[in-house]
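HUMAN:
Just now I want nothing more than another pair of eyes on a protein record. I would be glad if you read both lines and explained how they fit together. I have put the entry right below:
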Amino acid sequence: MSHDKAVITCAITGVLTDPGRHPVPVTPAELGAEARRARDAGASIIHVHFRRQEPGRGRFPSWDPDVAAACVDAIRAAAPDLLINMSTGVVGPDIEGPLACLRRVRPELAALNAGSLNYLKTTRSGDWAWPPMLFDNPVEKVKAFFDAMRAVGTVPECECFDTGIVRSVGLFRDNGMLTGPLHVSLVMGVASGMPAKAAWLPLLLDELPDAAHWQAIVIGREEVWDVHRKTAELGGNLRTGLEDTFYLPDGARAESNGPLIEALAKVARDAGREIATPAEARAIMLGAAA
């Protein structure tokens, strides 16, 4: 499903990016300030991962509901009209942490990894960049998240790292696991997933379930901007932020989320799209759930 208004999401911090090397926000105060910058630049949604708050531990994820509440409260205080999109991504069968955070903060949206992927990357020498990892999201795990989100009034955003996962979303709906507004994120740029190539988008859109809202999540450097431009032209929603890239269209490094969102808003306008306000984004994204 396409809209004249482009809904922009800011992926504000990411899951493992080292705050000692990159300008990612970690503390509630930092997240609030960055959320306001993103809001002022055109974002309507903040996609947030929660991080450990102990000194020197901010590189690592946290599933402490108190940490989640402090982070979300700070974002809402800084920009009350923004929608919160919470990550639920976790490796392994233990999902009690994400579920506890969902119940505590009750976000409007939550990312839900809709299928499994061998999460791989090699170095220039051919060695593994990290030990080969299965990002496991079997059907029973996906269903547990769908059920928990439905219980707290959160709309799922189905993250799809590969084409079979895109097609699975329609099967989840046909089976009755997934109800309500349908959102698909095409995750592009992971080395063992779908590549960050604009030419793939029309093919992927053919595989989307009917009436699905969609966006591209594009991970990488200069190649991400070609995909963003094509997404805007095809009527999709848009996402960027320091979780996805550190690089602006001219190759310069972004020192905060604000310049990335400004650049993405310009991409949308250059494609003839207007930027959705948070109120408009709420109506588009939540629909019958609003």
